[in-house]
Every structure is written in structure tokens, then in C-alpha cells.
Amino acid sequence: MGGGLKALDVANVIDLGTASNAIVWASAAVVLGLGIAVAGLRGRTSGILGFFAAVALIVGGIFNVVPDGDRFRPQNADWSPVSIQQALDGFDITAGTGTVDLTRMALNPPLRTDLVVPIDATASNLTVIIPDTVPVEVRADMTMGNLNEGSQSHGGMTSQQSNYNTGKPGATLIVKIDGTFSNVTIKEGN
After folding, report:
1. pTM, whole model, 2 decimals?
2. Cα–Cα distance between 186 and 190 in angstroms, integer?
3. Quick one: 15 and 93 in the same domain?
4. Are both 134 and 182 inside the same structural domain?
5. Residues 6 or more apart from 31 whose CB is under 8 A from it?
6. CA–CA separation, 29 vs 134, rounded Å?
């Protein structure tokens, strides 16, 4: 239903204006709601349909609030801080693909105090490259996302803490990742 409305809008048969994506997501929620009602009449629970309906309503609401949301396009975002202050300010990415390369920072090992680099990723694919010259601790809080570290993968809703370069002297570079609906990959490098 939503795809049909979008196709009619693109073909200029109907005019949904700037709310076309919100209408498409709302119509998807209506179809899912009908499925939930039918399941209820048959004496069953909504199951996964309830989750998908909630997601459709949330996404539709976002497109309803964001002006010209249907013109939004994901973009690549690569970040390579060279100073400690740039890294401490953190990095945010939403609906994109990016790389955070922390190997170019002027760290001058050993570090005297712990440094915290905040990274927020929402609906994105992100690669974080950590230095091998100082102790590094990755603290990741993932909501409906994946955290990939070497051969290990942690998915769903998880909090994960991993330590790298534990034999190096000095304080720790703490990479604090908050990921929502994202895939985050940790790579070691220099």
C-alpha cells in the first residue's frame, strides 16, 4: 500500500507534498495494524507485527517532523582527529556510512590521564580504527545493532567492554560508543 502511494506520487498521479514519506510509513503501520487485529480475532498475539508497527509509526513520525525529510540522503562521513581536543569533542553520525580513524591523533605515549572519545551512531555503518600505541578500552552500548570486533560479533541490545594493548604503559584511551540501529566495526591499526 505504501509503495503504491509512493509510486503514484512519483508518477505525479497524486500529490502527497512534503509529507510523502510520512504517509508511506503511516500506511505501512495501518496495514500492520490490520494484521494485528486479524491475529487478535484469531486469538493470537501480535508477535513481531507489533514491533514492526511501532517502528513504522516512529519512522513516520520522524518524517512528519523533519522538514523536507523525503529529500534526506545518507552520506559518508570520515573523521580523523589530529588533536586530543578534537577527539574529546566526539563524533556523531546518523543514517550514513563512516570511518573514525583515531590513529592520527598526537597522543605522545604514555598518556598521563584517561581520555574519553564519545561516538554516537544512529542507523549507520561505522568503522572505528583504534591506535596500537596506547592502552585502549572500547565501551559500547548497542541498541538493536551489531558490534564487530575481530572474529567476535555482538548483536541486539548489548553493553560490551573490550581492552586492547593492555601491555602498553600509561593511561587509557576510552572509546565510548552509543550505537542505535547501527553496525559498528572495531579495527586495530597504525
Report:
1. 0.64
2. 13
3. no
4. yes
5. 1, 2
6. 49
Per the structure, the count of domains in the chain is 2
Domain that holds residue 184: 76-188
Residue 96 in grid coordinates = 550514513
Q: What's the pLDDT tens digit per position in 77-133?
A: 899 999 999 999 999 888 889 999 999 998 888 999 999 999 999 889 999 999 999
∠ Cα 38 41 43 (to 5°): 115
Q: Tell me which residue has cell 549507520.
A: 124
CA angle centred on 59, ends 48 and 44, rounded to 5°: 20
Angle of CA points 132, 133, 138, to nearest 5°: 55
In sequence order, the 6+-apart residues with CB closer than 8 A to the CB of 108 are none
| Proportion of the chain above pLDDT 90, given as a percent | 44
Distance, in Å, from the CA atom of 124 to the CA atom of 168, rounded to the nearest integer, reads 32
